Amino acid sequence: MKQRMDILDCSKSSDYDRAKELKSFDDTKAGVKGLVDAGIVKIPRIFIRPDDELAEELTTHQSNFQVPIVDLDGIRGDRLQKIVDQIRDASETWGLFQVVNHGIPLDVLEKMLDGARKFHDLDLEVKKELYSRDPKRNIRFYSNMDLYQSRTANWRDTFAISTLASKPFDPTEIPEVCRDSSMEYIKNVSKLGNTLFELLSMALGLKPQHLKEMGCTEGFNIGCHYYPPCPAPDLTLGTTKHSDPSFLTILSQDQIGGLQVFHENQWVDVHPIAGGLVINIGDFLQVISNNKFKSVDHRVVASGSVSRISVPCFFTGHATETPKLYGPIKELTSEENPPVYRDFLISEYLSSYFSGAVGDKSVLYQFKL
Predict the structure, then answer these.
(1) Residues 6 or more apart from 35 whose CB is under 8 A from it?
(2) Which of 45, 119, 186, 344 is most buried as measured by Cβ atoms within 10 A of its Cβ?
(3) Alpha-carbon torsion 72, 78, 82, 85, what sign?
(4) How far apart are CA 352 and CA 11, in angstroms?
């Protein structure tokens, strides 16, 4: 506790220049891992959460709730209706669930996580060539996409692979150390995404291809997140509380843990399952389902002893292709259940989301009627 107070006292010095410190960190192009590799023993002020957040953390109860687990085995057989029912219940009450027997081979998941780690372990000069804050780049390395807008920087670096950019996706842009594993994972996760959107369509009472025909499966990006061990894990977060600007997110994570979901006003640990994947409903799906499905807040706590790897795949639909409006699905609205949101462009939503601090739920509310 004394070390914590010393850091906080130091952080409030009158000569603290946050903008300068942010730029200094960004200019290194080394990310958070660069700080750890340099042997820091105290985290920079830009990573320390505000006093009100830290005080709230001391009173927040972490429950023993169990995140729903859906077994997809038998999806083409007599268990289909049960699986659809489970997904409907989890999407309405939690906004997040885990799936097992999902069809992606374990070695594909392991190689993807290993490839992500190998990228972050590359020589810094190699990674610097890919360092960018330009969202139009298909392949890029960065730390904290909302670095200059957030209240607090997160203890996390990211290597991103995007299929949303206007120019054709070229696999050779991916560093060789993780190219093959990434391409194999992309092929498999795309297939799983199609299956999940079929199940979600059915869970909404629609025909299986409804969400796919809306374009929900077209276009996604992958983030290979690296969370280094932190000297002061109680002062910062690996990822700030947020909901996803996507229709759906499929997350592969290692066995370290740290992911939490906000459920019934409590933070619940999403314990890793060997071979399992975390599925969470995004903001776009909450909108088009007219609030039937829930886009949930989640976060990642920092670890003081080990590094963590996670690979989320965000299905964001038409973002840079021919403009397409999305809004509450007509079949899900009526006089008794009128539309809650206005129609919107994916690009419009993303622009609003990334212009402020990630996690600002007001973006979703901006689109309410």
Answers:
(1) 43, 44, 228
(2) 119
(3) positive
(4) 31
Buried b (16+ CB within 10 A) or exposed e, 295-307: bbbbbbbbbeeeb
Dist. CA 239–CA 32, nearest whole Å: 13
Assign 348 a pLDDT band (cuts: 50, 70, 90).
confident
Assess contact for 179 and 161: CB atoms under 8 A: no
Count other C-beta atoms under 10 Å from residue 12's C-beta: 10
Contact yes or no for 314/246 (Cβ under 8 A)? yes
Q: How confident is the model at residue 11 (pLDDT cuts 50, 70, 90)?
A: very low
- The two tokens of residue 264 are 């019934």
pTM here is 0.93
Q: What is the mean pLDDT of residues 306-314?
A: 97
Q: How far apart are CA 166 and CA 157, in angstroms?
A: 24
Other C-beta atoms closer than 10 Å to the C-beta of 342 total 13
> CA 298, CA 361: separation in Å to the nearest integer?
12
